[in-house]
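Translate sequence into structure tokens.
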Amino acid sequence: MTPQENKPATPVIEAAHAALSAALPFDDTADFENADRGFIAALEPGLITAADGSTVWDADAYAFLEGAAPTTVHPGLWRQSTLVAKQGLFEVTEGIYQVRGLDLSNVTFVEGDTGVIVIDPLISTETAAAAFALYSEHRGTRPVVAVIFTHSHIDHFGGVFAVVSPEDAASGAVAVIAPEGFLEHAIAENVYAGTAMSRRAAYMYGAALERGPQGQVGAGLGQTTSMGEVGIVVPNLLISATGERHVLDGVEIEFQMAPGTEAPAEMHFYFPRFRALCMAENATHTLHNLLTLRGALVRDPHVWSGYLTEAIDTFGGRTDVAFASHHWPTWGQENVVEFLSNQRDLYAYLHDQTLRLLNKGYNGAEIAELIELPPALEAAWSTHGYYGSVSHNVKAIYQRYMGWFDGNPARLWPHPPVESSRRHVAAMGGIDQVVALAHEAFDAGDFRWAATLLDYAIFSDETHQPARELQADTLEQLAYGSENGTWRDFFLSGATELRNGGFGTPVSASAPAVVAQLSPAQLFDSLALRVNGPAAWDLDLRLDVVLTDLDVSYRVTLRNGVLISRVAEPSAGADVTLTLSKLRLIAIAGGDLTSPGLEITGDASALQKLLSVLEAGDPDFAIVTP
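Result follows.
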């Protein structure tokens, strides 16, 4: 299929952008000054490749981000992307340096007495290695004495192999520090629902989109995700209490726990020597997500705002610079407090006002249309929804408290999308009439209604080419009008798949190095999630699994389509006993029964029966079609 070209912006979008360009405070250039402050050198060229020559990161692909916003990009998102695309090594303050723009996140280097402390080594080994090399080129070669993971998301630990080996982490030769619960949450998020999250993340970050004014321009938090080797090491020092202090290579660090905020396991920390505060990912230059479009657990804005208040009270009076694992720092004690206060007020306002309206009987979709930010917050660039949005965050808050059901009994048991769509289309006079109505909505600039009508049409008949073509055009216009980078990516990704076919999942978070860190209990849980229940209804299996390297045994049962595991010594009644290492068990879960290292005692067919009802997820599942 020949790829179809993008369309220009319609007059409706052009007029909206012209109005926004006149209304938004573009005369406030402080962010540009801060984003350039401390610049030392860029990576040139800005291309990072893997050992096989494939592209892991291409900062130069965003060279088009200069000048005024084109009509196909929201002027606010264009401004944000221009700022975020700045790449290179920057001085935060004397002794603290960041490399920005070489991945979705930043990596920070804190110089100690003899070596360097690395904070959040990006997503990929290749980008982290390039960032460390750029730092070393301009600051000299220093040994890594410690690594700090601020929280449990992959863009803050995935590149760790570039700065510390698993052996040095395991031996304690290099301190690896993380908040309590880091490993469990890092593994669970990337494995349990990893296939679905990775597929949707491809939409969220525009992984398959062309870079350019009619394509992907950035995700608001960073430009996009790198596509290299992902690793993880087990922390050897867990932080568990606010006020905990540690000295690393002569550098004192004071920690503040912030669990349940942007990540289930997250922390802030302060460096008295540098009067510098690291805010992890809880205070960035955007409204963040309370529920990411790729999928995740709903985050708690009430707790989030509370920890920001605590950070202001604890560190605000002694902080000269605040930095985070995304975007650029904020300098000056007064500016830091104002920035953190605006971020605090942002999450608290959304939480409190959603609950106020919820208790008046409004549902999530209605509240999302009603809530407006206070003028002072609306005027601050750092509170705009480039990554999270007021709309989907409000719906997330509603979901957190009230769930998916809005209380209307007519919406308690609706037909699923295909059956509902067929009935809608039939009620409106057939698919051609639905498409005609959608054309009217499109021409009137009501792209939201056009998208709804065409969704019915496509889920009624996915082969109807006029519906597919008009829906692609409609989603494209919605993308052009979006200030939110991830909304833009979602709309454009949907348009791309309608025009050119599915692009699947370019990057998976379930990397072998991550899977290898599964505990036995997590591994059995992940297997339970793969059991095809109906296919296993009639199976009644009992397996003993002896893990030789961990000196622990499990009894695993499968009955009624449910896989249950528990620690237990081998005993009578097992159909089969497997004696092996944990890594060999992981290989078996992947279908490898031929490699050495597996001892089977008893009925080997029981293992085969279990494996026969395990099924993998589909990384290519449809999103904009049935």
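Note: The chain has a mean pLDDT of 96.
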